[in-house]
Amino acid sequence: MDLSLKTLKRSTAVSVAALFAATAAHAADLPQELPPDPDIFNWTGPYVGGHLGYAVEGDAAMRFPGGTLNADLDGILGGVYGGYNHQMNGFVFGGEADVTFGDIDGSAPPVSRFEPEVQGSVRLRAGLAYDRFLPYLTVGLGIASAEQTIPGGGSPSNVHLGVVAGGGIDWALTEQLSARVEYLYSYYGRERYRHTAVSSRTDFDTHVVRGGLSWHFGSYTR
Fold first, then answer.
1. pLDDT per residue as tens digits for the range 166-183
2. How far from chain centre, in Å, is Cα 105?
3. 34-62: per-residue pLDDT in tens?
4. pTM
5. H helices of 54-206, where?
6. Which of 3, 15, 146, 168 is most buried by its number of CB atoms within 10 A?
7. Which CATH entry fits the domain spanning 41-221: 2.40.160.20, 2.40.160.40, 1.10.700.10, 2.60.40.1240?
């Protein structure tokens, strides 16, 4: 009876050892969990850049005593911008300011030229980062100076305040350099233009598509 018990214990121990050995061998064959990717781009930090684009559409509504004239606006533009990003996990938020100069204009006789000369904005930005790609939305306040010309009536200018909204995508080319494409809609409120014999109250908007290159001072991979 004792011999049978010893034999049973020995067989059980051998079986358990064999089971552990087989389990360990099988675990060694399973794919191992990889460590976190050390090269994920981080968008945190300040940046500056330059942009070039086109006002693909716009409208200046010029309200004279006898009625409203509408001038279609379009033209090329370019400028500079700067801002700051802060990244929390995949969420990126921050602020940006830009100044834009361009050759945007339109006409509606007797107005021979309505020209937004300089535009600027201060905007909030928020997006979701996918490593080196950052789709974002943006909204903020806009300011623009414009000139309205009537032959023989002078070329008064004025400053308009408004709102700017849009979105785009940033793409990190290197740890410091990124490229972007964005769309911005701007609306500028009504202001009075006083000509020699008549005056108008004018507001306008633009639809702009532009690309840019940014230099990042604090971005890095982690």
1. 999 999 999 999 999 999
2. 25
3. 444 556 889 999 999 999 999 999 999 99
4. 0.80
5. none
6. 146
7. 2.40.160.20
